[in-house]
Design a protein that fits this description.
The structure holds two protein chains of two kinds. By secondary structure, chain A is mainly α. Chain A contains six helices and two strands. In chain A, strands 1-2 form a two-stranded antiparallel sheet. Classes of the chains: A mainly alpha, B mainly alpha.
Chain lengths: 175, 442
């Protein structure tokens, strides 16, 4: 139940960030040519929206299996080695994203102490930097879920037929 | 020595099959933990880089063009472009195949990705060609190869990433892609023509002038994006990133209002898919930035550059090395990772040898096109094999003859820099004043 809410929240967050960033930049360009001035903060807001989209989208990507790896050795190895490699790959994901979430959290606390604000919007930077611990933490959780799924059923999220454009092949679960 | 350690860690991590982005980031962590003084300053720099690495407006052209491409692929634009292309060249020998190449070239002028081009054009043209009696293998080869025009003809996501990795101008790179793109399209059509004539492939009926005009008007709204993107960037109306946002909105308007191929209810799904892919690319970019930070702080680009220069290589020999390295890397990794890792290593050397950074960008792009055409990570092949319901091996065999054409073309582009550069020189010789106070050239 909680997982399903989390899934939906994640999806809605990233698609709203995507749509908002596009609208902000577009409207700002249009305003520049109609009213003479765009929003001074449009660039900054677009960047922040996309960074938030990227951090949470990376977590969503674990679920859809879109993060491409080099699978040459995995494909050509026997069952024993294959199992070891898949486990290692997932543990690497867990450890790395966990470390980043931890470092990110330390960084947020540090920035909170400095009281830094963003140049144009003048928003507190620590709130903006929260994207790192939250996004990476969620990503870590997604890797743990993927590892558990693999141990339970031997399945791996895979998105082989996907590419850098958003070519869609809905999430496929391959053996 | 340091370089060897870093490379070993990276290769070992990559071989587990873990995502390339994770392997890059983890290499940085492992090296810092194990072989370098790991203090809190380093940790703080890493944490900061994770965020500030992405804090650049030019990187954001990537998600915008991905979104535009997603709307274009689903929005009925491809269908109209194909109809227009068929009206123009369908009557020639191998008419449908010729139309497919031309349609890919047209679609590439509004889309920045190769697999998207294969998907958009192939999903319609492959079944049509098979139905008309073309051998399936031939059809697959034509589509997978011409689809690779997507990243050579501007806009191009790979070129944007090269611009990000090397701080070169994306606008100049786009301009540099125009002539090589058009030339490659012509070359692919020529090969198709000769082959089709020999095999006596069917022709489509010749379209009347009125029909051509009609087809053009029908495709007009989609093709208008060429004017918006290239005209907008070159005319100084907006930066490449803003051009991306404008084309995403325009592609959305085409798909939902003008061509009505998408309903409002499908829009969130398109957004989500675009977000998924963009986030993957941005995640690779973040970690590649971390990785290049490690390389720079260990002064690897400089020592590599010094070492290469000490070998007294001629520029042409260096370019052979560049091409071989890129082709080899293309065996294992997808384009954006390769460009992000290797471009910063090659560029300083190229510069001291007097090779134009923009020319190097075009060379890398064509190498990436070739990488997309052969297994194990050829994205065009995955898409084509899915569309044709053919195995990956069979699709690879079908594409093999076309690889020869592409390799020959790579040699031409590598050793005749003027093909890429003369238009850049022509357009950028006299600085063009922005027409309306705005973004300026980028």
């Amino acid at each position: 139940m909680i997982n399903r809410i989390l899934d939906h929240l994640e999806e809605w967050l990233i698609l709203s960030f995507m749509a908002l960033a596009t609208l902000v930049t577009f409207v700002s360009v249009v305003m520049r040519y109609t009213l003479g001035t765009g929003f001074t903060w449009a660039t900054e807001l677009t960047i922040y929206l996309f960074i938030w989209m990227a951090k949470f989208g990376a977590a969503y990507g674990v679920r859809t299996g879109i993060h491409i790896g080099v699978d040459v050795l995995v494909n050509y190895s026997g069952p024993g080695l294959k199992k070891f490699l898949i486990n290692a790959a997932m543990w690497l994901g867990i450890v790395f994203t966990g470390m980043i979430a931890f470092f990110g959290a330390r960084w947020v606390i540090f920035i909170h102490g400095t009281g830094q604000t963003s140049p144009d919007l003048e928003w507190p930077m620590w709130i903006i930097y929260l994207a790192i611990p939250f996004g990476s933490g969620l990503m870590c959780y997604r890797f743990i879920q993927a590892l558990m799924l693999y141990h339970r059923s031997g399945q791996i999220h895979s998105h082989i037929k996907v590419d850098e454009t958003g070519w869609r092949e809905d999430e496929e679960v391959l053996k | 020595m340091t370089a060897a350690i870093i490379l070993t860690i990276l290769v070992l991590l990559l071989l587990t099959g873990t995502p390339i982005s994770i392997a890059l980031g983890m290499t940085v962590m492992a090296f810092m933990l194990g072989f370098s003084s790991f203090d809190m300053t380093t940790v703080n720099i890493i944490s900061q880089r994770l965020f500030t690495g992405l804090e650049s407006f030019s990187i954001m052209a990537v998600p915008f063009f991905v979104l535009a491409g997603t709307f274009l692929t689903d929005g009925g634009v491809a269908k109209r472009i194909i109809h227009f292309a068929t009206c123009l060249v369908g009557w020639m020998p191998g008419g449908l195949a010729m139309s497919a190449v031309l349609a890919c070239a047209f679609f590439a002028t509004i889309s920045g990705s190769s697999p998207a081009t294969v998907m958009a054009i192939g999903s319609i043209m492959l079944p049509a060609m098979v139905e008309a009696g073309y051998p399936k293998r031939f059809g697959v080869g034509v589509i997978a190869t011409s689809g690779s025009l997507g990243i050579l003809i501007p806009p191009s996501i790979v070129m944007i990433i090269y611009a990000v990795a090397t701080s070169e101008s994306a606008g100049k790179l786009f301009v540099a892609g125009i002539v090589p793109g058009a030339l490659l399209a012509a070359l692919l059509m020529l090969v198709t023509f000769v082959y089709a004539k020999k095999k006596n492939f069917p022709r489509s009926p010749r379209a009347g002038f009125r029909e051509i005009v009609h087809a053009f008007l029908d495709a007009f709204w989609g093709l208008l994006l060429v004017v918006i993107v290239m005209g907008g960037i070159y005319g100084g109306f907006f930066t490449p990133t803003e051009a991306g946002a404008v084309s995403a909105v325009w592609a959305f308007i085409c798909a939902v209002f003008l061509y009505r191929n998408l309903t409002w209810r499908e829009v969130p799904k398109v957004l989500l898919h675009a977000a998924n892919t963009s986030a993957m690319l941005l995640y690779i970019i973040t970690n590649a930035i971390l990785f290049s930070f490690l390389l720079t702080s260990e002064q690897i680009p400089q020592s590599l550059s010094n070492w290469v220069l000490a070998q007294h290589l001629q520029p042409w020999m260096f370019l052979v090395v560049v091409n071989i390295t890129l082709l080899a890397a293309g065996q294992f990794m997808e384009p954006s990772s390769i460009v992000l890792i290797l471009a910063p290593l090659f560029l300083p050397i190229a510069k001291t040898m007097g090779i134009d950074p923009i020319h190097l960008g075009v060379i890398m792009t064509i190498n990436m096109e070739i990488g997309m055409l052969h297994p194990p990570v050829g994205l065009n092949l995955f898409v084509a094999s899915h569309l044709a319901k053919m195995g990956l091996t069979e699709v690879s065999i079908a594409t093999a003859p076309w690889l020869v054409v592409m390799l020959a073309y790579l040699v031409l582009i590598t050793y005749v820099p003027d093909v890429s550069l003369w238009l850049v020189r022509l357009l950028y010789a006299t600085p063009v004043a922005p027409l309306v106070g705005g973004a300026g050239l980028d």
